[in-house]
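Students often ask what a holo structure prediction actually looks like on paper. The answer is less mysterious than it sounds. You provide the chain, you provide the ligand, and the output is a string of discrete structure tokens encoding the 3D arrangement of the protein together with zinc ion.
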Amino acid sequence: MLACSRFNFANMRGGFIFILVLFSTLVYANDPLKIGLFHGQEFLRASFTVVKGQMEVVVDGEALLKLQPGDQFDMSTASGQLCFIKGELQKKSSSRIVIRSIIPTLFKIQIAGFKATQRLYEGDLLVTKVGSRLQLTNILPLENYVSGVVEAEGGARHTMEYYKVQCIISRTYATANLRRHEAEGFHLCDATHCQVYHGVSRHEPLIKIATQETEDIVIVDQNIDLITAAFHSNCGGHTNNAEDVWSKPLSYCIGKKDTFCLVMPNSNWEKSVEKTQWMGYLNKKKYPLEDSSSASAVAYFPSEKELYFADSSLKIPNKVIRQDFKLKSAYFSVHQNGDKVTFIGQGFGHGVGLCQEGAIRMASLGYTYKDIIHFYYTDVHLIPLRFRWFFAAE
Ligand SMILES: [Zn+2]
Ligand SMILES: [Zn+2]
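The corresponding structure tokens follow.
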């Protein structure tokens, strides 16, 4: 149990320190996130449209003008200098341009060769020049970002409890990875490298509610460290130990039986390749094809998940075969089928941590987000981020 009696509130000095630390923690928890937009795209010009609200353009710290819904403007580094352009008005900047929301605002961004007109952003926009290109950074509260990620990554038509699980995972990931793009001047990018973020959540109303109802909740391990909230599409009936897939163990990612995902779309798959290709591959891996074990090369039926292919003393990891043949999972059997061999497999993904399709099924059966998170992550706690220091203090 997490102790709640670590502070003596009768002790005035302790109380004062408590308030100070609490205040500083709250300030930190409320700090907005900086998200690098269109990560991996190189562009010198971008067009913006204010859709709702009111914004203010601030060039090198100086207010330039206010923008209303329908106003369009461009940002460009084409001249070699960062420049704000609105019709005849052009203003060069030596360092940064901030497009600040005065009241809650929505805006659209268009960059050449990239269709993003359907995306709407909120919060502020920081525009800088990096080398010769434009860097766009969206500044917004963590909770708004979480809703956007869950919509971009989680898909539509799920239950509230499943969205709550996704919100908590996304929030945990974001807060555990705030330094991932430190050198580039923002916290996280908007691509799969971090978490996919395509602006505000606006198609699935349940996501906003799920975000609010889990506000500030993150997953921590027994040391009150934020967990690496690994997840995958479908574990195939048994999740994996982290150390069997990656190099290091994670105390909360322990392989366990999961029957919830067995009836879901990604629970089974098949893939055939030429037998000559498969035998050539095994030959290269020094699999003994000339003796009695060669039969197992085309007739491999493991009764449970195995880490190594057929003859485990040869140490050909199934996860490497998965990678080399682009299989959906490392949990498969091999069958001969004329001059082809067929891999028949279960699950989709690395199998570590939370099984998304299992979680979707659990939520539809009436399990709560807490049940689901505790089922897939071993010995974890759900705590408010702003009080993490309190639980960790000792
Ligand atoms: Zn990233
Ligand atoms: Zn599963």
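Residues 264-346 form one domain.
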